[in-house]
Amino acid sequence: MAELLPFHGLLPLPELAAQVSAVPYDVVNTAEAAKLAEGNPWSFLHVSRPEIDLEPGIDLHDDRVYEQARRAFERICSGAPLRLDPAEHLYVYRLEMNGRGQTGVIGAASAAEYRSGVIKKHEKTRADKEDDRTRHVMTLRSHTGPAFFTYRGRPEIDRLVGAEVKKDPLFDFVAPDGVRHTLWRLDEAASRALSALFSSAVPCFYIADGHHRSAAAARTAAECAPRNPGHTGHEDYNYFLAVAFPADQLLIMPYNRAVRTLNGHTPAEFIDEVRRQFTVTPAGDGEVARPGEFKFYLPGQWYLAVPKFEVAALGVIGGLDVSWLQERVLAPVLGIADPRTSPEIDFIGGIRGVGELMRLVDDGSHAVAFSLHAVTVDQLMAIADAGEIMPPKSTWFEPKLRDGLVSHNF
Known about the structure:
Layout: E1 9-12, H1 17-20, H2 30-37, H3 45-48, H4 63-79, E2 82-84, E3 91-97, E4 100-110, H5 111-116, E5 119-120, H6 127-140, E6 142-143, E7 147-151, H7 155-164, E8 171-174, E9 180-185, H8 188-201, E10 205-209, H9 211-224, E11 239-246, E12 252-253, E13 255-259, H10 267-274, E14 278-283, E15 294-298, E16 301-307, H11 315-318, H12 321-330, E17 345-349, H13 353-362, E18 368-371, H14 377-385, E19 396-397, E20 407-409
Parallel strand pairs: 5-10, 7-11
Antiparallel strand pairs: 1-2, 1-20, 3-4, 3-9, 4-11, 6-20, 7-10, 8-9, 12-19, 13-17, 13-18, 14-16, 15-16, 15-18
Helix pairs in contact: 4-6, 6-9, 7-8
């Protein structure tokens, strides 16, 4: 069964929570992070994107970047300040965006359960990103950004969480992007009771977002264990920061694609190539109404593409829209053999809307853009249950969790 344990959370003062908290490190580039942190010395982006405080163009894996992260973390811990809860707690975290909310539980997840498969994954991780996150965590001796888990909801957990959110919160603020973040600290008795419910009623967690954080946590535990002659397996380094949401509350948005080249084809030739396996008709907009089809945009015009083949026969992975788009259009027609490494393709989170796809094509930076239907949570869990791996950039979850609200030291 899945563990989610109380721990000694490291938290900012309530009146500074909005200033300290920051978007995850991996949803902004250096320039975007610098702009968001501008004029705010307490922004956690100084910790998660420390290059913003070093010379422009520095290698993101330079030793000085990790040292700068350590200095920024120490400065914020002492100056904001961040305070370590003297007792072990679970925390309830609610996010609200555009009138809908999702409420999860923050706790310490087990690195051993990640390794054993109780914490299930659906994406491959890249060694260079694992290296970076592991070094960042080991330098800080803290997990400062939560892994985002989901699970099949349980009414007994819902009832206990529902009782807690009727109480006064510890933090409650609206971030600059309009998302409301509310955090409750459970008392010790409620924390133990809720943790016991997870251990008895939830057989597994699914990583929704945070595969590299989870992999880095497992590597951190593996590095720390041999350095401790008295290792028992229960030390803080064996656990990492996670927030678990019931699956029926989650919103997955499309993860769209924009390609810089038509691979030598004219727009008319490209459409003819797509028509070999899809029925193509002009469309009035870029919104995709249902799974099993996609739209693409060439300068000034959207097109709807409906497969001529039977999607359901392709299996749990092959039947994903992102899979057959890759195998039947991006690779054979546009030459994108490996979307993980090709410089010709960009992935555009659904939160940016189809207008961003049009902008990229109309400004000449990209030749064609593809609008997809979102993967469902049920598909994600089925793929993870089968031990399969989704194609890269298949899911985009909103709203995004904030870094810095609760950290897990070890």
